[in-house]
Design brief:
The chain is α/β, with parallel strands linked by helices. The protein folds into two domains: 12-185, Rossmann fold (3-Layer(aba) Sandwich); 190-388, Dehydroquinate synthase-like, alpha domain. It contains 15 helices and eight strands. Strands 1-8-5-4-2-3 form a six-stranded parallel sheet, sandwiched between helices. A two-stranded antiparallel sheet has the order 6-7. A hairpin with a 4-residue loop joins strand 6 (152-157) and strand 7. Helix 8 (216-237) crosses helix 12 (305-316) and helix 12 (305-316) crosses helix 13. The radius of gyration is 20 Å and the shape is globular. The relative contact order is 0.11. The mean pLDDT is 98. Bound molecules: 5,6-dihydroxy-NADP (NZQ) and zinc ion (ZN). 5,6-dihydroxy-NADP binds next to helix 2, helix 5, strand 6 and helix 7. The site of zinc ion has 5 residues, from helix 7.
Length: 391
Amino acid sequence: MLGNFSYCNPTKLYFGNDSLNYLGTELQKYGKNVVLIYGGGSIKKNGIYDEVVSILKDNDKNIAEISGVMPNPTTNKLYEGIDIARRHNADLLLAVGGGSVCDYAKAVSVSVNCSDDPWEKYYIRFEEPDCTIVPVGCVLTMVGTGSEMNAGSVITNPLTKQKIGHVFADKSIMPRFSILNPNYTLSLPHYQMVAGIYDIFNHICEQYFSGEDDCTSDYISEGLMRSVIHSSRIANKDPQNYEARSNLMWAATWALNTLVSRGKSTDWMIHMIGQSVGAYTNATHGMTLAAVSLPYYRHILPYGLAKFKRFAVNVWNIDPEGKSDKETAEAGLEAMASWMRELGLVMNTSELGVTDDMIEGIADGSIILPGGYKVLEHDEIVKILKESMYE
Ligand code: NZQ
Ligand code: ZN
C-alpha cells in the first residue's frame, strides 16, 4: 500500500429479505415532497412499486413520479426529470431500480438547483456541483453497477454519441441510504442477470489490474472475484437460488464502493471503450464490457505480466508448475473466457450491433485514462475494437 488516500463512504445500507421495512425509518429524515424515480415498468410487474408507494403514503409523503428511465439514461430524459423535481420542490429523490435509475437520480440531484446545462457542466467539464443538491435514496432491483453505494453517474448523449460517467468527488452525492433485498433481483431476465455479473467482475478487474506494489486491496479483490465466480455458476444454473443471488448483490456493492480502489491507480479502459460502444449501439452495459475484454486483456498482458500470472493462480487456480509466466497468465485469461462463455455472455461487439464504419467513431469516443499497465494510443483502441468484432 504505497499510495496516499482517504476513505469515507456515507451510504447507509439495509440488506436482506426484510430490508424494505427500514424505508419508513429513512423517510422520516426528509421533507414531505418525494420524487419516485423508476424505469420501464418492471417494478409494477413484480409488485415492488405497490410496496414502496404504500410505505410513502403511510409516511404521509407528497409523491411525484419520474417513470420510464431507460437503460443508459439520456440527456433529454435528464432535462425532463429536472423539470419534474423542480416543480415538485423535491426533498428526496427515491430511485427504485437498477444502475440506470440510480445514476439518473444522482444526475437530477446535482441539477435541480443548478442554472448551468448539466451535460456540459458535469459530463463534459467534469465540474463538481456548486449548488444545493437534493438527497438520493435507492431501492435496488438489479445487481451490477454498484451505483447504490458510490458517487458515479453515467449519462448518454445520443446527439453527440457520447456515453460519459462522472464519479463525483462530493460524497454527499452518494445515496444517503440503499435498500438491498436480493429477492427483488429474482425477476431479472437471465440476460440482465449475467450482464450484471460480468459488470461486477469487471469492476474488480479494472481496479486490480494496476500497480506493482503489495496492496491489501488486491487480496480483497481476489476474494471478491472468487466469490463472484462461485455464486455466478450457481445462479446461472439455478437463478432462483437466494443464497447465490444475495452473495452476488453484496459482492457487487463492494466491487465498486471505492474500497478496493484504495491505494490503486486503477485502469478503467474496458469501461471507457465499452461505454463508447454503448453510445453507438445502446447495448446493455455489462455486455459491452464482456465483448471488448478479451482483446483488451490479451493486448496489455505483456505490460502487466506479473499481475496476470497472479490473477491466473489466485483467482482461476491455474497451476504454474512447468509453465512460463506468459503461459500461466494466458491460461488464466482462457479460464476467464470459458467462464464467460458458460454464463452466456456476448463475446463480440458485432453481436451488439457494431459495424466497421463505427470503429473510428467508437475509438474517438473512448476516453484514454492513464492508470493501467499501458496507456493506449488511438490506433491500439482501433485494433482492440476490430478484434472485438470477431472474438
Ligand atoms: O426499466 P425496467 O422496466 O425497470 O427494466 C430494467 C432494465 O430494462 C430491468 N430490470 C431492473 N431490475 C429488474 C429488471 N427487470 C426485471 N426485474 C427486476 N428486478 O433491467 C434492465 C437494465 O436495467 P439497468 O438499470 O439499465 O441496468 P444496470 O443496473 O446494469 O445499469 C446500467 C447503467 O449503469 C451505468 C451503465 O453505464 C448504464 O448506464 N453504470 C453505472 C456505474 C456507477 N454508477 O458507478 C458504473 C457502471 O460501470 C456502469 O457504467
Ligand atoms: Zn460497469
